[in-house]
Write a structure and sequence with these properties.
The complex is a heterodimer of chains A (about 260) and B (about 525). Chain A is an alpha/beta fold. Chain A has eleven helices and ten strands. Chain A folds into two domains: about 5-85 and about 160-250, Rossmann fold; about 95-160, no CATH class. In chain A, about 40% of the residues lie in helices and about 25% in strands. Chain A has a six-stranded mixed sheet, with helices on both faces. Chain A has a four-stranded antiparallel sheet with strand order 2-1-4-5, covered by helices on one side. In chain A, strand 7, helix 8 (about 175-190) and strand 8 form a beta-alpha-beta unit. Chain B has three domains: about 5-245, MetI-like (MetI-like fold, Orthogonal Bundle); about 255-350 and about 460-515, Periplasmic binding protein-like II (D-Maltodextrin-Binding Protein, domain 2), CATH 3.40.190.10; about 355-445, D-Maltodextrin-Binding Protein, domain 2. Chain B has helices at about 5-10, 10-45, 50-60, 65-70, 90-115, 120-125, 130-160, 175-185, 185-215, 225-245, 260-280, 290-300, 310-315, 325-340, 360-365, 370-375, 385-390, 395-405, 415-425, 440, 465-470, 475-480, 485-500, 505-515; strands at about 75-80, 80-85, 255-260, 280-290, 305-310, 340-345, 355-360, 380-385, 410, 430-435, 445, 460-465. In chain B, strands 9-8-10-7-11 form a five-stranded mixed sheet. In chain B, strands 5-12-6 form a three-stranded antiparallel sheet. The longest helix of chain B is centred in the first third of the chain and has 35 residues, at about 10-45. The chains are: A alpha/beta (about 260), B alpha/beta (about 525). The interface between A and B is medium-sized, with 29 and 21 residues.
């Protein structure tokens, strides 16, 4: 195997909109197996674009994105996406399907037996901290935001994909629920050992979850390294985020 | 007779008409769904097509139904040897109804799918759904409520429009409505209108309930098995329709008629004489509105119907009016043979011309004998005319000029309603038909056309030359019918059906027996 350690690899990747607007410039990046890479940046910095290039929701204008040693353009996009779990901020649970059916979507597409799908759904519900007996047959609108988000994560894990993409999955939650779910997710992540790419603009979240952080600004990656490195960086954008972090940390402390 | 009495006496026929009506509505809406939903889906995939397709569906909704029928009847389009468009009967009615009900279905399918939350669509794509899976597992189930709302609108439109289908012999509750209008019979009109309204209400409630259930978010799982069933059901509908289309016509003589009592009676006379003398099976395609009988004859959908010389000359050939009956007959006979390969056979003997009518007591009081007499005293009068008479050049415009009429007001209404309007003092003068049974029923007086303004309208069977060649005995029958009916006899026959509420079939049989054509 060409890359045993990196599952995702960006090589000189550019993405330009048909109108000429450059969303991503010269991105070079590798995500190692089992690590959680956090894409950090402000709105419009290119985080989501980077993510969509991985599961081929968009194709690079130039350069190459590799997943498991094969360029995404050579992958059948359907096969590629079924090997990659995907959680988005709006969650995108199907409102006409029950929680169990929502979690079972990819396994069903993959042709699993109904019994195995049901079993898997219950197992995952329990894994993300929801009582399967209570929630399996409910509809998404009968759940709270936090519960829905847990279902979103469970759904991404359903077919046991090696890679999971999360695009601000906890963005719509209130801060308290958010902190709780981040901690739980951290535990889950250590348990599962999946390769994850996690998009956020919340530096505190990045610090809880990241193995490494990639800081993006205006479509360029200006920093890549472990969280500590960001705090020590002299780059103005890194400083801006670091200041937020310190500010945020101080809130809970006694004066 | 009250409406309830009518329903109890005619429950069998009513049931049949309701079934015919439901058949038209279900098949038309079914086909409209099978065409409209895929078209709506196509529009979500190719938005560039939305303008031409929605524009077309929009225009179809604005075309008056009789005009659409007139356009469809002569088309004759075949698919795998099965006529799919053209001719009279349920087939053409269904095509027209489908065209009318397409718009709400296409529009709602398009809107329903377009309004699916983009985040949900992205989630589906990100999970590795193919476009097909996304459509059937996510977009269609989510749009279903909106699509059903469209089907609901289409169905209600269909139930209403299907009453007009009776004008081209497609059956349904419209038969009662047309018959009622013709005979001036409110009970008959209601007998058609009330059940039609009830069907529309029921369909609206049922589909509304379905729509609400689905939009409330009930889990709708479109499994492959369900799709299979849907496909099978659709196939069944198609087969049923194809069978229906194949079932009619071929090897029989079809006699048509226009949509008023006299026409149905002479149609029956023609049909029964042909049955008796040729032994051929005769199909009756009666009650064809406007010029549809002519269109149907040209399309080969019917083999014969009774036309009037004046109508042939003016309305069909669009020539200038002529006063001499013999000349008119010669003219239409030669022109029809040349242009349409149709033959005018022996005249039946009566002339159904415009009759200028006033109330009997007015005629007596004012001593009116001729139209000219009336013109002198008509300054304070209101006149009521049928749409036909108002619109044609030889109708009201030419007539009022020729006699120098200046009415206080002219009201345009359905011809069959003018007699009652006159009898009930709502108007003072009408232009009816000289053979109308209602003239004696309401005690009306026909003024003499002293300036010979109106052209002759001699009733003559018009027959396809091809039919005459195929059934040589036909010519014999038609010869025997020559001169068989005087104006007075025609008025009596009309009176028997219109006022005595007897069946045209029975009246015609009695007449033919009396004339020793039947034994």
């Amino acid at each position: 195997m060409a890359s045993q350690t990196s599952t995702i690899k960006f090589q000189d990747v550019n993405f330009v909109l048909p109108g000429g607007k450059k969303l991503l410039a010269n991105l070079n990046l590798q995500v190692a197996r089992g690590e959680t890479l956090v894409l950090l940046g402000r709105s419009g910095s290119g985080k989501t674009t980077t993510m969509k290039l991985i599961n081929r929701l968009i194709d690079p204008t130039s350069g190459q994105v590799e997943v498991e040693g094969k360029a995404t353009l050579e992958w059948d996009p359907i096969k590629l996406r079924r090997r990659i779990g995907y959680v988005i901020q709006e969650i995108g649970l199907f409102p006409h399907l029950t929680i169990e059916q929502n979690i079972g979507v990819v396994p069903r597409l993959e042709g699993w037996e109904p019994d195995r799908i049901a079993q898997r759904a219950r197992q995952l519900l329990n894994l993300v901290g929801l009582d399967a007996d209570r929630f399996a047959s409910r509809l998404p609108r009968e759940l709270s935001g936090g519960q829905r988000q847990r279902v979103g994560v469970a759904r991404a894990l359903a077919a046991d994909p090696p890679v999971i993409l999360l695009d601000e999955p906890f963005g719509a939650l209130d801060p308290i629920t958010r902190r709780g779910i981040q901690q739980e997710f951290k535990t889950l992540q250590q348990e599962l050992g999946k390769t994850m790419v996690f998009v956020t603009h919340d530096i505190a979240e990045a610090f809880v979850l990241a193995t490494r952080i990639a800081l993006l600004k205006d479509g360029e990656m200006i920093l890549l390294g472990p969280p500590a490195e960001l705090l020590e960086s002299s780059d103005p954008e890194a400083r801006a985020f670091a200041d937020c972090f310190h500010g945020g940390q101080s809130i809970g402390r006694p004066a | 007779m009250t409406l309830l009495e009518f329903f109890t006496h005619n429950s069998g026929e009513l049931g049949e008409l309701v079934l015919e009506h439901l058949f038209l509505v279900v098949v038309s809406t079914g086909i409209a769904v099978l065409i409209g939903v895929p078209l709506g889906i196509l529009l979500t995939r190719k938005p560039g097509l939305s303008k031409p397709i929605l524009g077309f569906a929009n225009i179809m909704q604005t075309v008056p139904s009789l005009a659409l029928f007139g356009f469809l009847i002569p088309l004759n389009i075949y698919l795998f040897n099965v006529k799919i468009v053209g001719g009279i009967g349920a087939r053409t009615a269904i095509v027209a109804l489908v065209l009318y009900s397409l718009l709400p279905i296409i529009r709602n399918t398009f809107t329903g799918i377009s309004n699916v939350d983009p985040a949900i669509r992205e989630a589906g794509r990100g999970m590795g759904m193919t476009d097909h899976q996304l459509l059937f597992q996510v977009e269609l189930p989510l749009a279903l409520g909106v699509i059903i709302a469209g089907v609901r609108v289409a169905t209600v439109i269909c139930v209403g429009t299907a009453t007009i289908a009776a004008a081209i012999d497609a059956g349904g509750l419209g038969r009662y409505i047309f018959r009622g209008l013709r005979a001036n019979d409110n009970v008959l009109i209601l007998a058609g209108a009330v059940p039609a309204a009830l069907i529309a209400l029921a369909a609206d409630l049922l589909l509304g309930y379905l729509e609400k259930t689905i939009q409330a978010g009930a889990a709708v799982k479109v499994s492959s098995r369900k799709l299979l069933w849907t496909g099978a059901a659709a196939l069944l509908v198609f087969l049923g329709v194809a069978y229906f289309f194949l079932g009619k016509g071929a090897g029989r003589i079809a006699v048509g008629s226009k949509d008023f009592t006299e026409q149905v009676i002479v149609g029956e006379i023609l049909a029964q004489a042909i049955e008796a003398k040729t032994g051929a099976e005769v199909v009756r395609r009666f009650d064809l509105g406007g010029n549809l009988a002519h269109d149907a004859l040209i399309a080969g959908e019917i083999d014969a119907y009774v036309e009037y010389t004046g109508t042939g000359l003016l309305a069909i050939l669009k020539e200038k009016p002529l006063a001499d009956p013999q000349e008119v007959y010669r003219r239409v006979k030669s022109e029809y043979a040349k242009r349409f390969k149709l033959e005018w056979t022996e005249p039946l003997g009566f002339n159904n011309t415009f009759a200028i009518l006033v109330r009997g007591e007015d005629a007596k009081k004012l001593n009116l004998k001729t139209v000219s007499d009336a013109a002198k005293v008509s300054a304070q009068w209101r006149a009521g005319f049928g749409q036909d008479f108002m619109s044609r050049a030889d109708g009201y415009p030419g007539f009022s000029k020729a006699y120098g009429f200046h009415f206080e007001a002219t009201r345009e209404m359905d011809l069959s309603l003018t007699y009652r309007a006159l009898a009930e003092n709502q108007v003072d003068l009408i232009a009816g038909n000289s053979t109308d049974g209602l003239i004696s029923r309401y005690g009306l007086f026909q003024l003499d056309d002293d300036r010979h303004y109106f052209p002759p309208y001699d009733a003559v069977p018009v027959v396809r030359q091809a039919a005459l060649e195929k059934y040589p005995a036909l010519r014999e029958v038609l010869k025997q019918l020559g001169g068989i009916l005087t104006v007075d006899e025609m008025r009596k026959l009309n009176f028997a059906v219109d006022s005595e509420k007897r069946q045209a079939r029975d009246v015609a049989r009695e007449f033919l027996r009396q004339k020793q054509v039947l034994h």
